[in-house]
Structures are given as C-alpha cells and as structure tokens.
Amino acid sequence: MSASEFLSKADQSRIVQSIEAAEKDTSGEIRVHIETYCKEENPLDRAVYIFNKLKMNETALRNGVLIYIAFKSRKLAIIGDSGINKVVPINFWDEVYALILQHIKTGDPASGICAGIELAGSKLKEFFPYTSNDINEQSDEISFGE
Fold first, then answer.
1. 22, 46, 53, 84: which could form a disulfide with 40 (CB 3.0–4.6 Å)?
2. Average model confidence (pLDDT) for the chain?
3. What pTM, to 2 d.p., does this model score?
4. Edge-to-edge strands of the sheet including 143-144?
5. What are phi and psi for residue 8, nearest 5 degrees?
C-alpha cells in the first residue's frame, strides 16, 4: 500500500476540511504529511526535513505546524516552527500527539488526524488568532511521500 492509499479519498477530504476549518480561527498553517516509511530513526528528524522541504519555514509569522505520519514504520511527529516554539510551553503538542495516536491504535487514523488538527487549531488560536488580512500561505492538501 502506498502512502496515498493509506487513507480513502473520503478520509483525505475530511482531513482537508478539518485543516480549512481550523485555519479559520488561527493565522497558523497546519499541514499533514503521510509516507510509508520513516527514513530516520527519530521521526522528529524526518519531520524537520519534510517541514523544510514543504517550505513551511517560510510563513510570515513562522507559525507552521506539521503532522507527520509514517504508517508502516509506525512513527508520528508533530512540529511547530520557531514562531510557535518561542511562545508555547515545551509540551504544547503532547495532547495533540496522544489524541492522534489513540485513534491510530484503534484503527481510525483519519478521525485521529481530524481531531488532532481541530485541537492544534484551537491551541494555536490562543497565540496566533486569525486576522482579517490573513492569507493562506500553505496548501491545505495532504502531502505524500514514499
């Protein structure tokens, strides 16, 4: 199974809709990247690589968030850019991580990703509220790797 087949088209659409809804309340940019295998021992290292490859480090407020999943390697990571990391507590993503992981373990990754996006959006809203001149700097589509 390839990364793009990990989720059904309907589930992919639900995730994109969750990103769009979350970003209505925050200027933060949320992306999801799914690949089959993690090429690094530590999924955070791979997530940083993907984060930069997707140019998420180029948002104006440096407030991008990446949810990274390598499903066959059973790896998950959530990272935020430097603008976020300057203002949030060190364990800011732990609750989002646990929520997504709980759903993955029960065989419902799409619901977990959607719930994680919703929670990430509500957390980001506190530090990066939506402004009327906000523009969508990142694609809301899921990106896929090998």
1. 46
2. 93
3. 0.95
4. 75-80, 64-70, 29-35, 143-144
5. -65, 165
